[in-house]
């Protein structure tokens, strides 16, 4: 399975993240304009590195999807907050699902800032009103590559994960949500979303555009 890892200045996290990949899983690190040597670190630790000059989470994810070649593809943050060892278990659930997403469960207090957690809860509640039984916007997810390409998600910013869920719901996809551990980010990295109220508000703006 290919694992797409959007990356912007995650050099401090990448060695451990890439070392945690299960056997047989290939990392595709999509560099989104890093200035800390992330592409070189990723390459040195065995990842396929592709570059996406357009800034934006969705742009990086889509470029990684286009670079993937496996039938199944996974997506994860490259900051060390997620356990890639959970991917094989999630992949097995695709036998009865079209999309498997992770519901973050913080391993300790302070891992998930209040402003990010509150924004996520509001968006998730709106999705449930649309008939999609999820409680997170799912930074860890697994699906079939061709099906995701056909879904034609258009957002190239922070609204991408939400648009994916909205389109999956509209397409009648079977979405399975499972609990996954949510850990502190690797030291020396900073979240572009939850790391500040401003980042959270920017992400909320992008997601609000999806829900209009």
Tell me about this structure:
This protein is an alpha/beta fold and 212 residues long. It has one domain: Spore Coat Polysaccharide Biosynthesis Protein SpsA, Chain A. The chain has eight helices and seven strands, in the order βαβαβαβαβαβααβα. Strands 3-2-1-4-6-5-7 form a seven-stranded mixed β-sheet, with helices on both faces. α2 links the parallel β2 and β3. α5 packs parallel to α8. The longest helix is centred in the middle third of the chain and has 16 residues. It is globular. The mean pLDDT is 91. This is Glycosyltransferase family 2 protein. Pfam families: Glycos_transf_2. Belongs to the glycosyltransferase 2 family. InterPro entries: Glyco_trans_2-like (IPR001173), Glycosyltransferase_2 (IPR050256), Nucleotide-diphossugar_trans (IPR029044).
Question: What's the tally of helices?
Answer: 8
Q: What is the helix content?
A: 25-40%
Annotated CATH topology = Spore Coat Polysaccharide Biosynthesis Protein SpsA, Chain A
When the domains are counted, the total is 1
> Radius of gyration, rounded?
16 Å
Looking at the overall shape, the CATH architecture is: Alpha-Beta Complex
Question: According to CATH, what is the class?
Answer: Alpha Beta
Number of strands: 7
Strand content: 15-25%
Strand-and-helix sequence, N→C? Answer: EHEHEHEHEHEHHEH
Based on secondary structure, the structural category is alpha/beta
Tell me, rounded to a whole number, the average pLDDT: 91
The low-confidence parts are: none
For CATH, the homologous superfamily is named as Spore Coat Polysaccharide Biosynthesis Protein SpsA, Chain A
Molecular shape: globular
Q: Largest sheet, order of strands side by side?
A: 3-2-1-4-6-5-7
Biggest sheet features? 7 strands, mixed
Domain Glycosyltransferase 2-like: 3-145
Protein name: Glycosyltransferase family 2 protein
Pfam families: Glycos_transf_2
Family: Belongs to the glycosyltransferase 2 family.
């Amino acid at each position: 399975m290919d694992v797409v890892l959007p990356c912007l200045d995650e050099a401090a996290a990448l060695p451990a993240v890439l070392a945690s990949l299960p056997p047989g899983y290939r990392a595709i690190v999509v560099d989104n304009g890093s200035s800390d040597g992330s592409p070189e670190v990723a390459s040195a630790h065995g990842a396929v590195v592709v570059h996406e000059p357009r800034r934006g989470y969705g742009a990086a994810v889509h470029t990684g999807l286009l670079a993937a070649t496996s039938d199944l593809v996974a997506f994860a943050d490259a900051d060390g907050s997620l356990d890639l060892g959970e991917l094989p278990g999630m992949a097995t659930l695709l036998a009865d699902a079209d999309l498997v997403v992770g519901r973050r469960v913080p391993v300790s207090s302070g891992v998930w800032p209040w402003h990010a957690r509150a924004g996520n809860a509001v968006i998730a509640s709106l999705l449930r009103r649309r008939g999609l039984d999820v409680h997170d916007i799912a930074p860890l997810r697994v699906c079939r590559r061709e099906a995701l390409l056909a879904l034609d998600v258009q957002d190239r910013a922070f609204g991408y994960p939400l648009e994916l869920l909205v389109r999956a719901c509209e397409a009648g996809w079977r979405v399975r949500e499972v609990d996954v551990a949510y850990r502190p980010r690797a030291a020396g990295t900073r979240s572009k979303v939850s790391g500040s109220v401003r980042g959270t508000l920017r992400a909320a703006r992008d997601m609000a555009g999806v829900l209009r």
